[in-house]
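Final report, closing paragraph on structural work. Over the funding period we assembled a curated collection of sequence-structure pairs, and we close with a single example.
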Amino acid sequence: MAQQLVTIFGGAGFVGTTLVEHLAKTGVRIRVAVRRPNSSMHVKPLGDVGQVQVVQANLRDEDSVRAAIRGSDAVINLVGILYETGAQKFNAVHGKGAETVARVSAELGVTSLVHMSAIGADEESPALYAQSKALGEKLVKAVFPDATIIRPSVVFGTGDGLFNRFAQAASLPLLPVFSGDTKFQPVYVGDVVKVIIRALSDSKMQGETYELGGADVYSLREIMQLAAKEAMQNVWFVDVPDFIAPFKVFFLGLLPNPTITLDQLRMLGKDNVVGADAQGLSELGITPTLVEAVLPTYLHQYRPKGQFAEDVKI
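Its predicted structure, as stored:
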């Protein structure tokens, strides 16, 4: 792969930053395509001088997508949104936007395409997020049949938006729990990145779909409890009854950066775990990283005394 050019759409986000750091070690040149380059410069020092380039691109603007892909040997699309704002709609980003990346990649002779989707992608889902993810997979496959589809469960690691959010919220005396029994299979960001990098050069992975989950399955309530435990915070978790939840979530969804939306509440109606017949980490020979082994490395920042909250025993 050395000296190849890999373009990563959404390469400055949580997964993208880790991917750039590890991909740079393979010697490839990396082009990070983002909507706001000025706020994405943190990825440039992750490679050698000149190895990582940041360019402007918007999946809703085909000309910018084409410019970002031109000359690339491989393309990775990590772009995703958790809720809609302005022109950033689910179908525009996950559906049409994903199709644009795949179609332009095919037209420009890209040899390898990796598309990030999500466990739970389903055209019949009541959640628009899941519908749009399924639509994106369908459109990508139609124009780039050899694309590798990656479907992770919730991804954890330094900078994640799940455990960090719950650990920070654990400083409150009380936290509401919506659909607390819903199951998740958190997967470590480093393991997800391993799969993506391997897919760039492993011809056997072309055209395949992989569902990525960790070693253990947790309920949403257990995930919140794990975060609070690592933050060394005593918090009272209160289950919100299903018949009340939509009313409470409606108002939370009006916030500029909503903690939960009605669409996400609909997603919580179905477990987010690897399917029984799906290919995953085990088929690729990757041992999943344990949640408990990683959480202490970055959630200590939320402890009352930070990393010094515990006595060190020698």
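The longest helix spans residues 90-107. The mean pLDDT is 93. We thank the funder for supporting this effort.
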